[in-house]
Specification:
By secondary structure, this protein is of the alpha/beta class. It has three domains: 140 residues, P-loop containing nucleotide triphosphate hydrolases (Rossmann fold, 3-Layer(aba) Sandwich), CATH 3.40.50; 74 residues, Helicase, Ruva Protein, domain 3 (Orthogonal Bundle); 71 residues, Arc Repressor Mutant, subunit A. 42% of the residues lie in helices and 11% in strands. The strands form four sheets. Strands 2-3-6-1-7 form a five-stranded parallel sheet. Strand 4 and strand 5 form a beta hairpin. The chain starts with 12 loop residues before the first helix and ends in a 7-residue tail after the last strand.
């Protein structure tokens, strides 16, 4: 049986992130940019920062705006209108304005936001006076803003203003040591909500869960456990309860291989660069083409990864096979 006791575990990436958020809470006006793949915990981190910033003020507003859902009247939605309703920015006064998927913000709205951030003063549409506000702006992005700056889809000045404090949330596959501690927390929360007396995972379930790649990150982990609790009959979630095969995952050792190289027909091993290129393709396939996430998984900096992609001649087609078969003609 697995007790999922994480009290003695070494400090994880999320432990370090929480420490950074705790320090940021002492500076309530500092903008924050959270970058990471979908489901990696960006909104949860923003909400945690908000609570830590206003521990004695539960009434402090947390206004969450989905930037991809703004209409053509984005100026009125953001700034409000004189004699009408308040805009999102003013509604967050005294608290936090959370801008989800900031890179989806239209260029015109980006310019308005930058103007506000430069002076923390707002002028409603149709008004002749400015209002001074006090709030923190937290922006999240699943895409790399620096890439969008190159294609002029995102204002560099806005990026520099938001990235006063940039925090990156790696994919769950890059922090496997956190899977079981997170599972412990989710199981406790979900069991309390459902009234089920589930306390942990069986050893086979814990092993399979720790090996699962979680392309949907933390969000997928929670969904897997929530589904498992519905069908659970014992106090420990079983491998059958997890039903990881629904996502095409098999717990057998043969299918846990992430990447392998078959011996060519002539028996000559392929060149190292050929293997490296195929492996990079496989990692990019795993991350859905997200190069920043791939760099994190490979343990190298993002600029170094981009440089290596150019050297290897890797394009934007990330359809590398799990098993690479290399012909001798590929050798140099």
């Amino acid at each position: 049986m697995s007790s999922l006791n994480s009290s003695n575990m070494a400090k994880t990436a999320m432990d370090r992130l929480r420490e950074q958020l705790s320090r940021l809470a002492q500076s309530p006006g500092t903008p924050v940019l959270l970058v990471g793949p979908p489901g990696s915990g960006k909104q949860h981190s923003a909400e945690l920062l908000h609570r830590q910033t206003h521990p004695q003020s539960p009434e402090a507003p947390l206004v969450c705006v989905d930037c991809s859902a703004l209409t053509r009247d984005f100026d009125r939605e953001l700034l409000g209108e004189e004699g009408g309703r308040r805009g999102w920015v003013e509604a967050a006064n005294g608290g936090t304005l959370l801008l989800r998927e900031i890179t989806a913000l239209p260029l015109g709205a980006q310019a308005l936001l930058l103007k506000f951030l430069d002076g923390m003063r707002l002028r409603r549409i149709g008004s002749g006076r400015e209002v001074e506000l006090s709030l923190r702006v937290v922006a999240t992005s699943s895409r790399e803003p620096l890439e969008l700056i190159k294609t002029e889809q995102f204002h560099e000045s806005l990026y520099r203003r938001l990235a006063v404090f940039r925090l990156e949330l790696p994919p769950l596959a890059a922090r496997k040591e956190e899977i079981l501690p997170l599972a412990e927390r989710f199981i406790a929360e979900l069991a309390a909500r459902s009234g089920k007396r589930v306390t942990g995972l069986s050893e086979p379930a814990a092993t399979a869960l720790s090996r699962y790649p979680f392309p949907g990150n933390v969000r997928e982990l929670r969904a897997v456990l929530e589904r498992a609790l519905v069908s659970a009959e014992d106090s420990q979630l079983s491998l059958r309860d997890l039903d990881l095969e629904r996502s095409g995952f098999r717990a057998s050792p043969q299918t846990l291989r992430f990447f392998e190289v078959e011996t060519p027909d002539d028996g000559i091993p392929p060149a190292l660069e050929v293997i490296e290129k195929a492996y990079v393709h496989r990692v990019l396939e795993h991350t859905g083409g997200r190069r920043m996430a791939a760099a994190q998984l490979l343990g190298i900096s993002y600029p170094t990864f981009l440089k290596r992609l150019r050297e290897l001649g890797v394009d934007d087609g990330h359809s590398g096979p799990r098993t690479m078969r290399v012909a001798s003609a590929a050798r140099r």
